[in-house]
């Protein structure tokens, strides 16, 4: 495998890294503030993607960026409703019970979303899209390429994540999130409105994942299964990086697409690499988790008796 193949495979991984990172940060935000793993994250994002498509087809004069904002706003509201209407009323239910609630939300969205947006024709050739092509460039005498849409997905994801981490570190909201993540009861005693913090975390998670769904849907058939892989790999990224901090799962969201694309590289795995791509990715990630059971950047929790 040549240096050119390695660099090109890394470039091919950038769009996936961007999309998965947006899903992953939402999952860890919810987990850190409510101790709940949200199985409905992918479906909330898919609902937002349907809103984007519906708005783009209904109001053709609107920019696709405005349609994306509308979709993100709808997922923002939906995520907030899940917390306020369901999760908040289940405060005394076990963590596994809360997980089952999010699974119920997932099943509802799977069946309700196609009914709400039944006017959208799947695989329609009358949709709208960006006029973007393939960016080609030379480096050290070697030629590389990346789709402009993929590069845009990575750059926007990087900017959004930078804004989120800056807000977590420097804003009052970020201080409230970190306090709630450390100890919700103590945060309440210190005057932190944990209800606002958790509701906004759910809402922000939905909006961020919708941006990932927007780029996932580019050039792909729109269906309720749109974010299935992103949901699974988002959870894997959190486990791989470690749930103990906000940046750690992003490391997992970087590693998994790289493993996936290198496993699918025919120079390494042969002409049938695509058949083993998913399996090899899970094998490598599971081996890493066995070696680092608390995550690559996770810390072992020590409780005093």
Could you characterize what this model shows?
This protein has 305 residues and is mainly alpha-helical. Helix 1 runs antiparallel to helix 8 and helix 5 (148-170) runs antiparallel to helix 8 (194-217). The longest helix is centred in the first third of the chain and has 32 residues, at 3-34. A hairpin with a 2-residue loop joins strand 1 (134-139) and strand 2. The protein has helices at 3-34, 41-58, 64-87, 95-116, 148-170, 172-182, 184-189, 194-217, 228-241, 248-263, 266-269, 273-291; strands at residues 134-139, 142-147. It is 70% helix and 4% strand. A two-stranded antiparallel sheet has the order 1-2. The chain has a domain at 3-118 and 139-226. It has twelve helices and two strands. The radius of gyration is 20 Å and the shape is globular. The model has no long low-confidence stretch (mean pLDDT 87). The N and C termini lie far apart (54 Å).
Write the layout of secondary structure elements.
Layout lengths: L2 H32 L6 H18 L5 H24 L7 H22 L17 E6 L2 E6 H23 L1 H11 L1 H6 L4 H24 L10 H14 L6 H16 L2 H4 L3 H19 L14
Antiparallel strand pairs: 1-2
């Amino acid at each position: 495998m040549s240096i050119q193949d390695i660099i090109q495979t890394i470039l091919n991984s950038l769009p996936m890294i961007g999309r998965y990172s947006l899903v992953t940060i939402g999952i860890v935000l919810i987990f850190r503030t409510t101790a709940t793993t949200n199985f409905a994250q992918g479906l909330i994002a898919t609902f937002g993607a349907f809103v984007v498509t519906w708005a783009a087809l209904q109001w053709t004069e609107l920019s696709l960026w405005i349609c994306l904002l509308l979709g993100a706003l709808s997922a923002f509201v939906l995520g907030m409703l899940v917390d306020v209407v369901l999760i908040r009323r289940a405060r005394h239910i076990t963590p596994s019970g809360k997980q089952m609630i999010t699974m119920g939300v997932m099943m509802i969205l799977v069946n309700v979303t196609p009914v709400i947006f039944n006017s959208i024709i799947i695989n329609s050739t009358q949709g709208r899209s960006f006029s973007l092509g393939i960016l080609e460039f030379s480096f050290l005498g070697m030629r590389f390429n990346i789709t402009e849409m993929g590069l845009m997905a990575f750059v926007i994801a990087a900017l959004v994540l930078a804004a989120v981490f800056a807000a977590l570190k420097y804003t009052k909201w970020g201080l409230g999130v970190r306090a709630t993540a450390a100890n919700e009861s103590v945060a309440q005693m210190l005057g932190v409105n944990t209800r606002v913090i958790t509701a906004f975390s759910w809402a922000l998670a939905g909006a961020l994942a919708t941006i990932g769904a927007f780029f996932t849907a580019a050039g792909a058939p729109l269906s309720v299964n749109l974010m299935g892989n992103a949901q699974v790999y988002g959870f894997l990224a959190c486990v791989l990086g470690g749930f103990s901090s906000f940046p750690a799962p992003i490391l997992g969201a970087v590693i998994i697409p790289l493993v996936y694309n290198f496993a699918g590289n025919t120079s390494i795995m042969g002409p049938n690499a695509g058949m083993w791509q998913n399996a090899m990715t899970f094998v490598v990630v599971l081996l890493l988790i066995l070696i680092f059971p608390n995550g690559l950047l996770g810390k072992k929790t020590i409780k005093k008796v």
